[in-house]
Each structure stands twice: as structure tokens, then as C-alpha cells.
Design goal:
The structure is a single chain. The chain has 394 residues and is of the alpha/beta class. It has twelve helices and twelve strands.
């Protein structure tokens, strides 16, 4: 801070109950900070909220922690020096006056989501490959499924993940933790980033890291790819990918990054596609078409057909001309909420969940941990972590 301690005001506006234990921790470590809390629900115009926070409350705020609610205009927050978001990205407030018309530093909670989202990614990946829907149906039917020859055939022909290749499109904190877990399962991991990572230092994770997670030094990928144009992306997608994780931020450049052409490339291995980033990154009709193409071709290959039929992986590896992708797991859609009549609900071999992969009991505490790290760094005159580059959009 410099010049001795001065009292500063932390304003917290969030859509959940006051985290009093966390506030007590902040007061112990930073006794010069006054804390004000408002509970405000999320809306379609996210930086406004369901009711207006009194304009005067922003006037003397030094710091703001928020999911989305922001001051109505730059004139309403003359003393604001830092805004910390409890989300991993800021695309939802990118049109707000505070984002577009100020230089107030913005930080995100990127880095906190890795553990729980990685578990969701592996859960859905294994749910699909181990035909859990079939197993659950057997249990619900009180049926010992050994007599189901078609179902047992699927299970006998499934492949474990050893030797399969995970392509991580966007090797940030989430991608690194998924890569960490996938590597432990015996998978090969390759990474794609917008900027080249040609030196050991450039591969380091410089953001917030949950202890004992991720890939801090960037040593897990067997190969790194990079670029910002379609040619570079297609080169990466052509690397015999069995599972593709989509974990790039949503920007103008990444909107519909994956479409018909990209799914055609991924059909070389009939890849399984997982999206935990944002729905518009994928051209949803193109995804549905790719899923249907695979299902239409392979359904007759599964003995007996039926609700849970899909060709055994052994058959797929023997036939490299099978179109489409084998399945998808989507925690994000376009739009959200997904309308009840949207065809994505009924797309074959597709798991859809309502943007919940990052939820967990540690979520709130970890959000504040990022802010507290930056409080300490600010006092020491050090560079902040997780700062948003407004030009890049993340």
C-alpha cells in the first residue's frame, strides 16, 4: 500500500449467503479493511442484478468481489482499485461500462475449478465408455445382467484408457488438472494453446494453483501445439485424438471454433468430445450431426440393437471409415438454460448437465483465496495473478 496503513473498503456482492468465516479470516490478516456484503441474484443483464445496489455504496469501495454485479458507471466508483470475479472468465460482463470504459484491474477465480471439474470430466468420460446407463438400468430393473448377451458383449469389448490420447484444447488450470488425472490413468496428453510454449519457463502455470493439483511446470504433455488460425487448430485435431477436452475461454475468435470441418477431422478416431468451457465455442447443430452420423453407422454393428447399443471399440478400430464422433459430455450449452425442445437433449451418446461441473463445497473459499493472495501481493508491490487482459478477452 505504501505510506502507512489506511482503512480500505471491501464490497462483496454475491448470489449466496454471507461467508462470515471467510470475512473473519480477512479481518484477522488485514485489520484495516472494512467489509460490506450484499446478496444479489444473477440475471440476464448480469452487471445490474434483480435490484439495484445503492449507487452510494460503490463510492468509497476500494475492492469489489462479485460474480457479475458492477457499478452502473465509472463515475460511481472513483476509488475502486480492484475487481475480483468469482467466475473463471469475464465474458458475461464484457459489455459493461466498467469493462469497456475503465482500466480498473480485473481478476478472476481461474485456477480454483480444476479439482472438481476434472472429476466431472473423468466421471462423464467413464460413464460413457463403461456404459453406465446400461448398468444402472439393470439395477433399476432388479436384473442380473449376465444373461443380456448384447450388453455383456459391449462390456467385454470396452477399452480402458491406457494408451489413449487426450487432446486438451486450452491448457489452462482446468486442462492441466484433467491432464494430471488422465496421465495417472495411463493416457497420453497433448496440449494446445494460443501462444507458443517453446521454453520450460513458458510452460509454467503462473495463475492460482490448488495445492497438489494441476501441472505447475507444464511437464505432462508429450507434445505442445499452438496457434490462432484454423490451419494450426486442424493440425492439432489431426493428432489421433481419442478424447478432446474443450477448455478455451469464450471470445469472438473462439465462437464456433469447433464445427462441421473440425468434427470431420476428429472422426478419424471417432473422438469423444467434452466441453466444460462455454456453449458457443461449439457449433451445436454440427455436433449433433456428428453424433448422429456415428450412431446411424454403428447401431447395426451392436448385436441386438436397442436403447444402449453402440459399436464396441474393437470394431471401431478395425474400421477407420466410420463417420462422426462416438459421444460427447457437455456441461455448457448454447443457449443456457437449454430449451426443453432443443434437439441436443436427445442427441445420441451425449451427456448434458446444467453448468454444474465447477460446483462444490470448496468453491467459495477458493474464490476468496485468490483475492487474498492478491491482497498480499499488492501490499508487497508484487504483480497480481489472474489479471484479465481486456484486449484478449481473458
Amino acid at each position: 500500500m505504501g505510506g502507512g496503513q489506511k482503512f480500505e473498503h471491501l464490497l462483496v456482492i454475491l448470489p449466496f449467503e454471507s461467508p462470515n468465516a471467510i470475512f473473519d479470516r480477512i479481518r484477522r490478516n488485514h485489520p484495516y479493511i472494512k467489509i460490506t456484503f450484499y446478496q444479489l441474484a444473477f440475471t440476464d443483464t448480469p452487471w445490474k442484478g434483480r435490484f439495484e445496489v445503492p449507487r452510494e455504496i460503490f463510492q468509497d469501495a476500494t475492492f469489489l468481489i462479485t460474480l457479475s454485479a458492477l457499478p452502473p458507471s465509472p463515475q460511481d466508483c472513483p476509488n475502486l482499485e480492484l475487481i475480483h470475479f468469482t467466475s473463471a472468465g469475464t465474458n458475461h460482463i464484457a459489455n459493461s461500462p466498467i469493462y469497456t470504459n475503465t482500466t480498473i484491474p480485473l481478476t478472476t477465480s481461474s485456477g480454483i475449478h480444476g479439482p472438481q471439474i476434472a472429476e466431472w470430466v473423468l466421471m462423464t468420460m467413464l460413464t460413457s465408455s463403461h456404459h453406465y446407463a446400461l448398468l444402472h438400468k439393470w439395477q433399476n430393473d432388479h436384473r442380473w445382467g449376465q444373461e443380456d448377451k448384447s450388453g455383456i458383449g459391449l462390456l467385454r469389448n470396452l477399452h480402458d484408457k491406457v494408451g489413449q490420447r487426450l487432446g486438451v484444447l486450452g491448457y489452462g488450470s482446468i486442462g492441466r488438472q484433467v491432464g494430471n488425472v488422465a496421465k495417472a490413468m495411463g493416457m497420453d496428453v497433448i496440449a494446445y494453446t494460443a501462444r507458443p510454449r517453446t521454453t520450460p519457463e513458458s510452460k509454467h502455470d503462473t495463475g492460482f494453483i490448488v495445492p497438489h493439483t494441476g501441472d505447475p511446470e507444464g511437464k505432462i504433455p508429450s507434445a505442445w501445439y499452438s496457434g490462432t488460425d484454423k490451419r494450426d487448430l486442424h493440425h492439432f485435431l489431426a493428432q489421433d485424438i481419442d478424447h478432446l477436452l474443450v477448455s478455451v475461454p469464450l471470445t469472438k475468435e473462439t465462437t464456433h471454433l469447433l464445427g462441421e470441418e473440425e468434427f470431420k477431422i476428429l472422426s478419424k478416431r471417432n473422438a469423444f468430445v467434452t466441453n466444460i468451457s462455454r456453449g458457443p465455442i461449439i457449433d451445436q447443430p454440427a455436433l449433433i450431426s456428428a453424433l448422429k452420423a456415428f450412431d446411424d453407422y454403428t447401431s447395426p454393428m451392436a448385436d441386438g440393437g436397442g436403447e444402449f447399443s453402440v459399436a464396441p471399440e474393437a470394431d471401431l478400430k478395425a474400421d477407420t471409415s466410420i463417420p462422426g464422433i462416438r459421444g460427447a459430455a457437455l456441461d455448457v450449452t448454447d443457449p443456457e438454460p437449454l430449451p426443453k425442445d432443443d434437439p441436443l437433449w436427445d442427441a445420441p451418446n451425449c451427456i448434458v448437465t446444467p453448468h454444474i461441473s465447477g460446483l462444490g463445497s470448496a468453491y467459495v473459499d477458493r474464490c476468496f483465496q485468490v483475492f487474498e493472495v492478491n491482497l498480499d501481493r499488492r501490499e508487497k508491490g508484487e504483480r497480481l495473478i489472474n489479471v484479465v487482459d481486456r484486449e484478449r478477452g481473458y
